[in-house]
Amino acid sequence: MCHSVLLFEVEGENRVPEILIGKSLGYESVDSEELDYWDASTFFGCLKGRKISFEEYEREYRKKEEMRIEKVHEDYRKAIRKDYFDATAEIAREYAEASEVYEKYEKETKKHGKDFYRNPIYRNWHDFVQRHPEIDNPLDIRFNNFYYEELVDDPKRPNVKMVSHFYDANPKVDYETYREFVEFSYPKLLQRTKENPESDVEAIRHEYQTIFRQIKALLEKHERVGLACLSENRPPLRYLEREFKKIVDFTIDDFVTFSYRIVYWFRK
After folding, report:
1. Overall average pLDDT of the 174-187 stretch
2. Can you say whether the dihedral through the CA atoms of 177, 178, 183, 188 is positive or negative?
3. Best CA proximity match to 200, nearest among 88, 10, 61, 93
4. pLDDT of residue 37
5. What are the phi and psi torsion angles at 39 (to 5°)?
6. 9-18 burial, b if ≥16 CB within 10 A, otherwise e?
7. What span, in angstroms and rounded, lies between the C-alpha atoms of 145 and 153?
8. SS in 3 state form for the chain?
């Protein structure tokens, strides 16, 4: 795993011994001075091998996001139909039988080693949906587990910010209950698909903007500030050094195409 670190030259002890460039270095973590620089992974150089700009990468991502959203709509249109439910009723009965046999096998088996997972009883249950692509629908609670996350604002539980709700597959559910669950789960699945605050696109943009601001702030105290990527659990390595543009010229395309084992130095 690679981690971004902001560097500056200091007198005395080298606080970043992982980087060998013949200088004593101090560092600041990205986004928090309290964090050790190993604590946060990075998107430093993440698009270098792909030879595309961040704008092109974002367009790709948005297109895939639109496809994922349309897939949720398609799954809903399919799952809500009574003829679909009826046409797959026999498969649901088969899955119920496979689940019951597996649950009994699991209770009776003390060790869950390789033989457990190779057993035909486990494989029949575990691979059931894969063998029947016509029922591979996240809104069909007969064959698929479902979960959603709920934001919590409870004074009695100040440390709890989010609660996850899990629903196990129920192949024996009747149509009315099934339909109610489809209507219940559809908007939650759609929201989860639309709202992805941890998407790579937003994470890359956030990290770049954070690094840009922190380098500007550090340049008020230091003549130049370096940006480099450290690889975890490796011995000290020699890095090349490169005098980069002024910080005002540092773009997100620079950030995502930087090379590892180079310290990029910025000035005002």
Report:
1. 97
2. positive
3. 61
4. 43
5. -80, -20
6. beeeebebeb
7. 26
8. CEEEEEEEECCCCCCCCCEECCCCEEEECCCCCCCCCCCCCCCCCCCHHHCCCHHHHHHHHHHHHHHHHHHHHHHHHHHCCHHHHHHCHHHHHHHHHHHHHHHHHHHHCCCCCHHHHHCHHHHHHHCHHHHCHHHCCCCCCCCCCEEEEEECCCCCCCCCCEEEEEECCCCCCCHHHHHHHHHHHHHHHHHHHHCCCCCHHHHHHHHHHHHHHHHHHHCCCCCCEEEEEEECCCCCEECEEEEEEEHHHCCHHHHHHCCCCEEEEEEC
Q: For residue 262, how many other CB atoms are within 10 A of its CB?
A: 17
Residue carrying the six token digits 């690679």: 2
- pLDDT band with cut points at 50, 70 and 90 for residue 39: very low
- Asked whether the beta carbons of 29 and 228 are under 8 A apart, the reply is no
pLDDT digits (tens, 9 = 90+) for 94-131: 999 999 999 999 999 988 888 999 999 999 999 999 99
Given a cut of 90, is residue 9 above it in pLDDT? yes
